[in-house]
Amino acid sequence: MSWNPLDAPVDYIELNGKRSPGLADVTGAHLPRNWDKRKGYGLMGAFTVFHGMDLVDFTVTLRLYTAQDWDDWFAWKPLVDRPPDGKRPRALKIKHPLLAQLGVSSVVVTDVHQPKPDDAGSGMWSIDIKFLQYRVPLIKLAKPDGAAAPAEEDPVETKIIKPLVDQFQQLAKGP
Q1: Cα–chain-centroid distance for residue 53?
Q2: Closest CA to 128 of 149, 112, 106, 152
Q3: Labelling 28: which of 51, 55, 129, 156 has CA 20 to 30 A away?
């Protein structure tokens, strides 16, 4: 997806198909990778083992300027409220071009801050909402090969481990 914020600015998010109130800024989203460094006593250097991609966390700041923005906030707010006691929280579908570039399409709410007024006295209020990507776990443990040497096929990997990984991923997806 190629999106240019200069030609087509998007100042809102969609959460479960509902547009956010006021103006929205998405900040802090990044693609963290988990690596393990395996060293030996008296050795220089280490083997790196890739442990997969971590979940993307980010903040959406809503800026409310008008009475209509506040009415829209109170209509939209139940999407980000905590679930009622005894109910399981559910992930939410989210849409924004910056998040789509990082592969984020499903999230959970981790925190909702109280509305705070603008320090300059402009009448604008802002609300920070923190999100965490929701993604079903997939096995992705791998040790990268050296840059110059081509990878050789490991018979244990292809005959035993790969079929088990495929079986686990099918089970993780569910029926």
Answers
A1: 11
A2: 112
A3: 51
